[in-house]
Amino acid sequence: MTATTTRPSRTDEELPSVHRPLPSWVLPVLGAGAALLALGLRALLGSGPVLTVVFAVVLFTVLVNVVSRRVEGHRRSADRTVTAVVSAMFAAAMVPLLSLVYTVVSRGSARFDLDFFTLTMRNVIGEGGGAQHAILGTLIITGLAAVISVPIGMLTAIYLVEYGRGKLARSVTFLVDVMTGIPSIVAGLFAYALFVLFFGPGVRFGIGGAVALSVLMVPVVVRAVEEMLKLVPAELREASYALGVPKWRTILKVVLPAAAAGIATGITLAVARVIGETAPLLLIVGTTTSLNLDPFNGRMATLPVFTFYSFFQPGANPGPNLDRAWTAALVLMLIVLGLNLVARLIAKAFAPKGAR
Amino acid sequence: MTAPTPTTGLTPEVPAPGEPARPRSRPAQRLGDRVFSGLSTASGVVILVVLAGVALFLVIESVPVFTADGADLPGGEGFFSYLAPLLFGTILAAALALLFAAPLSIGIALFISHYAPRRLARTLGYLTDLLAAIPSVIYGLWGALVLAPYVVPSYRWLDGNLGFLPFFSGPVSASGRTILTAGVVLAVMILPIMAAINREVFLQTPALHEEAALALGATRWEMIKMSVIPYGKSGVIGGAMLGLGRALGETIAVLLVLSASGGISFNLIGQANPPTIPSNIAAQFPEATGLTVNTLVATGLVLFLLTFAVNFAARAVIARRAEFDGASG
C-alpha cells in the first residue's frame, strides 16, 4: 500500500532533476505561445499565411528545444526537437500535394458535365466541346499497350523465375532494371525511330504510342509478376511434380493460380502507371480534334496530350480551354486513382491470411 | 528472398522399387514443355532485342547529326554547343529537386515508419503511394498555374535580400516560371516515390537492433540514430539516385512549368532559364523536320545514357547493400 503511493515521489527525489519529464501541459502552452508570437510577427512584418505558419513551427521547435533542455537535459531535448522537425517535414510535404488535389478537384469540376464525356472538339473554338475523343483514344492506346505488354511481361517473369539460369537470365534481369529507368520521352523517341524506318518521316499513329507505352510497361509487369511468382512456395511445385504433372502444366495450373491475385494487382498498377504518360504520345501519336478510333491510321487524341495542349496552346480564347484542361486532369486523376483502388481491392480480397 | 529451389532433376530417373526396371533413359521432354519454355525464353530474348533496338535506333537516327555540317544544325554552331545548355538545365533542375526532396523524403519516411501511430501510418503509406501515381501532366498544370504565381513574391524577397548571391541576382521573372520553380515541382513529384523507398528500408531495420538500443535507455531519436539510419543508409542513397533518375527524365511537368529561353546561367529566379533535354524534345519535336529531328533524337540518346548511368549506380549501391547484410530490396 504505502509502496505504491510513495514510489512516484521517491523516484522523483532520487533521480537527478534533469531526468524529470516535462509536464504534459507544457507543450500546448509552448504551441500557443509560438502561434501568438508568429501572429505578432505577421502584424509587424506583414508576412503571408504560409510564412506565418512556418514562423510558428520554427518558434515552437526552438522553444521546445530550450525548455526541454532546461528541464530534461540535452538527450530528451534532442529527441523532442527531432520529433517536432520530422512531424513538421511531413506536414510541409503534404501541403503541395493537398494543394494539388484540391486545385484539380475544384477547378476541374467546372466542366465535369455530360458534354465533356459525349462531345469531341471537332469544330469547337470557344466554349463547349468535350474530350470524348481523347478518353476513347486513351482507352484504346492503353488497352493495346496492355495487350502487348502483359503476355511479354508475364512470360518473361515466368522465364526468370521458373526456367532462367546462367548468363541469359542474368542479363535479362539486368536489362529489365535498365528498362525501368528509361525516361518516357526516350521511349517515345524509340517508337518514332522504329516506325520512321518503315513509314518515313512524320509518322503519327496510335499503335506507335502503344509500342512506346509497352517499353515503359513491360518492366513494371515483369517486376510485379516476378515478385509474385517468387512468393509461391516451392513445396506447391514439388507436390505437383511428385504427382507426375509436367512442368508447363504445373506452372499454368498450380503456380499461376496461386499467384493470380498478386499478378492482377501488379498489372492493374502497371496500367495505372502508363495511362497518364504524356511525352511519348506527344511524339508518336500527336493529337487531333475529332474522333479517330483506328489506331493504325492517323493521329489520335489522348487524355494526357489533350490536357497538355489545352493549356500549352490555348489559342485566342484561353478560358474555356483552361477549364477543359483542368477537367481532363480531373478525369485522368480519377482514372488513375480508381485503378489503384481496384488493385488494392483485388489484393485485399485475395490476400492469404496473415499477410500484411 | 523466397526464390524457389531449382526444380530441375525432379523427373524420377530411378524406377520405384518392386517395379521391373525398364530400360529407360531420361524421358523425352514433352511437347508442351518445349513449347512453353520456348515461349518464355523467347519473351526474355524480346526484352534483350527491344533494348538493343532502343539503343540502335536512337544511334541510327542520331548519326546524321555527326556527319552533317555544324552550321546546318539548329543553333548553327554544331551539336555540342546545342547540347551544352540543355544538359546544364537538365542536371541543374534535377539537382535542385534532389536537394529539396532528399531530406524531406527521409523526414516523411521516418514519420511514417517510426513516429506516426501504427494505424495512421498504414493509411499515410497508402496515400503517399497514391500520390506517386498521379500523372506528371497534372503536376505540370499545378506547377504552372498555382505554384509559379504564388512564389513570385518570395523570389522578389530573395532578390532584394540575397541578391548578392549569383543564384538570386535579378531581374526576377514576373511569371515565376523559373528553373527553381521547376526544381520544386520535380521535388514534389519524386517525393512520394523516394519516401516510399525510404519507408520500406526503414521498416526493414531488424527489430532486435531497435529494441537493443531502447533497452540501453536510448531515446527514440538516439535509437533511430544508432540502429535505423546506419542500417538504411545505402538504401536511402539508392532511393535518392532512383529519384534523381526520374527527375532527369521528367518531360511534361518541366515543359509546362519552365519558361525556357536562355543559356547556361546559375541565376535560379531570373527570366532566362536553360531548357532541359526532355522538355526541349517535347517542345520542338511535334513541328520538327529534317536535321532538327535527328538533333533532338541525339539529345535523347544523351539523356538515355545519363539516366542509365545514374540508375546503374543506384542499382549498384542497393545491390551492395543486399550482399552486405542479406536484406532484400
Structure description:
The complex is a heterodimer of chains A (356) and B (329). Chain A has 2 domains: 26-109, no CATH class; 117-355, Orthogonal Bundle (MetI-like fold), CATH 1.10.3720.10. Helices cover 76% and strands 0% of the residues of chain A. Chain A contains 15 helices and no strands. Chain B is mainly alpha-helical. Chain B is 70% helix and 0% strand. Chain B is flat, with a radius of gyration of 26 Å. The interface between A and B is large, with 103 and 100 residues.
Summary keywords:
heterodimer, A: 356 residues, MetI-like fold, 2 domains, B: 329 residues, mainly alpha, flat, disordered N terminus
List the helices and strands and how they pair.
The complex is a heterodimer of chains A (356) and B (329).
Chain A (H helix, E strand, L loop, with lengths): L1 H13 L11 H20 L3 H24 L1 H35 L5 H5 L13 H32 L2 H15 L3 H16 L6 H26 L2 H9 L4 H12 L1 H16 L3 H6 L18 H10 L5 H33 L6
Helix pairs in contact in A: 2-3, 3-4, 4-15, 6-9, 6-12, 6-14, 7-9, 8-9, 9-12, 10-11, 12-15, 14-15
Chain B lengths: L30 H37 L11 H37 L2 H15 L3 H27 L16 H25 L3 H9 L4 H30 L2 H6 L19 H8 L6 H35 L4
Helix pairs in contact in B: 1-10, 2-3, 2-5, 2-7, 3-5, 4-5, 5-7, 6-7, 7-10, 9-10
